[in-house]
Q: What sequence folds into this?
């Protein structure tokens, strides 16, 4: 069974500082990996995804993530955070559709607080 | 972009009553919708997969007689929590997959429904 671990429950970063949110996954084959952001009153929004190819993927809002198979990791990064980035971030893993299992498994989330 | 709505956004009910939550895809058709439950400071847990015109597929440990799912059209799925109890209080989130695509990345999430059972 697939699983996702986000070891940091809460991270506080100063506005303008760099950010890295950690994500480790467990899956028997090559996974589909996602990062979502959840803001109060809004649905989860997809930031970026990795399916195959280049292991460094670019997403929306200036975010990027790097897939490292050897470390089973898919960490999210942003070089300079903005106050509007304060939210809950979820990493998720999905089985490849051609295996017939299209469910997403989410990590427990990391709450990001931005201080002036 | 694609929008998924949920109604109501917040509901408070008495123990023993039933509550219906609607999930609508506003500008696309969704053959498949998903229902998740999120506890405070925890992850989203998939409850069931809803397919238009057929019975929902429930995850292990989810009582299908308690959480009734109906996906009667390509834009609407409903979750009914029957005989609700305080332990059913939670944040319920739906997502909808764009039928035109079908791959994992075209799953759009609703804003969630906060259910409080007194």
A:
């Amino acid at each position: 069974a697939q699983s996702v671990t986000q070891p940091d429950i809460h991270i506080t970063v100063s506005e303008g500082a760099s950010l890295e949110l950690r994500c480790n996954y467990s899956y028997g084959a090559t996974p589909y990996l996602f990062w979502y952001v959840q803001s109060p009153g809004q649905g989860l929004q997809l930031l970026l995804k990795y399916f195959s190819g280049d292991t460094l993927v670019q997403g929306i809002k200036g975010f990027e993530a790097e897939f490292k198979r050897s470390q089973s990791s898919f960490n999210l990064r942003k070089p300079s955070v903005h106050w509007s980035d304060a939210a809950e971030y979820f990493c998720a893993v999905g089985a490849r559709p051609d295996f017939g299992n299209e469910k997403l498994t989410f990590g427990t989330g990391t709450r990001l607080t931005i201080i002036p | 972009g694609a929008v998924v709505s949920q109604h109501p956004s917040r509901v408070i009910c008495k123990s023993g009553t039933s509550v219906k939550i609607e999930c609508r895809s506003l500008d696309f058709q969704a053959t498949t919708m998903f229902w998740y439950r999120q506890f405070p400071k925890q992850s989203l847990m998939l409850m069931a997969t809803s397919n238009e015109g057929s019975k929902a597929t429930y995850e292990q440990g989810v009582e299908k007689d308690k959480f009734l799912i109906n996906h009667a059209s390509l834009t609407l799925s409903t979750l009914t929590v029957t005989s609700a109890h305080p332990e059913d209080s939670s944040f319920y989130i739906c997502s909808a997959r764009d039928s035109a695509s079908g791959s994992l990345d075209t799953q759009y999430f609703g804003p969630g429904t906060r259910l409080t059972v007194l």
About this structure: Chain A touches chain B through 24 residues (CB under 8 Å).
